[in-house]
Amino acid sequence: MPPGKAVVEQNRILACDVAALQAGVRPWMKPALARSLLPDIAILPRDVEAEQALLDTLACWAGTWTPRIRVVPHTGLLLEIASCLRLFGGFEHLHDAIVTGLNAQGYVVRSAAAPVAQGALWLTLAGESGMRFDRAAMSRSLDSLSLSALGSELPAECITRLNSFGLSTLGEARRLPHSALTRRIGAAVMRELARAYGEVPDLREEFAFPARFDLRLELPVPVDNAEALLFASRRLVQALAGWLTARQGGVRECSLMLEHRKREATLMPLGFAEILRDGARIEAILRERLPRLELATQVEALRLVADNVLALPGHSQPLFGKDGAQAAAMPALIERLRARLGEAAVHGYAPIADHRPECVSAHAAQGKNGSAGIVPAARPLYLLNAPQTLPERHGRPHHRNEPLLLLAGPERIESGWWDAGESNSDGRPSGDMRRDYFVALAPDQRWLWIYRECRADFDKGGGWFLHGYFS
Q: What is the C-alpha to C-alpha distance for residues 233 and 286, in angstroms, rounded to an integer?
């Protein structure tokens, strides 16, 4: 069995892990007694700042499920889920999803649900899990709680005084006369009791999601293997996904920084094929990138930064079949290929604001946007690399010695005078252009896209040309 761990504050055990519990170590023990039960136990001092930073990170992650969150300092989170139950298929499905997500990040979860936030918190601290659907059921559960189980919420002298009266549960204490009990344990404790039972409003402020995502996670021990950082980075990625859900937005890129000693850092930019907030997609990219990263020195902390939050476009679900799932899988495949092969190895085409057919697209990294495109008229699916000359007989263009029937046109394209003599990014000539385009029908029923040069110097390239096929 691995050696246990315990957190100590003011010379008392505040919390311990499963191994320590199995050896008989309990909260509020003195460290000397804990060592007598488990000699190899690791006694760690409490780090209040680290606890609060962890709760803030988990609050961002919980934005996946609800935007209404309260952080109880050094204790836990309160999530308002009543308005979200229908969205996530009921309490059981939502509760299982939350617990599963926390377990995947390495946390052990204690939870309870009740109509009153403070009541749910006290039931959780006392180990009373489950859902209480109405206040009567919650009040009965609270009445049965042992006073000693609420040692972290009620003052120790208050519990001692109530025990001296022969009281051991909350229900027994509440059956005493209100005025007499207030004189003995104080008005502040009575307000806490009233808040737990929902008799007074809970005025605690809700968690305010930060305007900019910038979270840092300090590692328990320095790590020199980049692949071992995947588990730690998962916590930051899931927090980013929850933060984006609460912001109702997505990102096209973010940055993971690996911090070393002496304030050195390794920057790992992460780009995506579309605007997203899916933590699983981001983890898939890290799973490809981290094993290929060579670390010069050990990593002591991770930091995830996302500056530019974009509006997340909506997606329509298919009525039949799985076409929507297949369409969503394509950007994920592109991202994995780019992570595995490199940014420069995966390319696509980006639209360019230009009227000339040869210049409306440019070779660009997949997922990168070109400039705002011009909405064109009908364009063919297949454009020839170089236009083919068409003979003209009796005033009509011919293709394969057969006359063509003009169906639509002309569409005048006159542009490019500013870069005459230059070539576009693919090496094809562009420059000054004066053309009338037509949609033509060939004898074999194919639709062609042809044009006639409008320049006066026909001896330098005028006449009819075939530029593409519609079908």
A: 8
What confidence score (pLDDT) does residue 317 get? 65
The superfamily CATH assigns to domain 213-311 is DNA polymerase, Y-family, little finger domain (3.30.1490.100)
Question: Rounded CA gap, 327 and 323, in Å?
Answer: 6
User: What pLDDT does 438 receive?
Assistant: 92
DSSP string, 240-290: HHHHHHHHTEEEEEEEEEEE-GGG-EEEEEEEEEEEE--HHHHHHHHHHHG
Q: Would you say domain 5-46 falls under CATH 3.40.1170.60?
A: yes
Does residue 231 contact residue 73 with C-beta atoms inside 8 Å? no
Helix axes 187-196, 117-125, angle to 10 degrees: 100
Domain locations in the chain as residue ranges: 5-46, 49-196, 213-311, 361-469
Q: Give rounded-to-5 percent helix, strand, coil for the chain.
A: 35, 30, 35
The pLDDT-based confidence of 433 (bands split at 50, 70, 90) is confident
SS3 471: coil
Helix (H) or strand (E) holding 405: strand 405-415
Give the Cα separation of 460 and 454 in Å (integer): 12
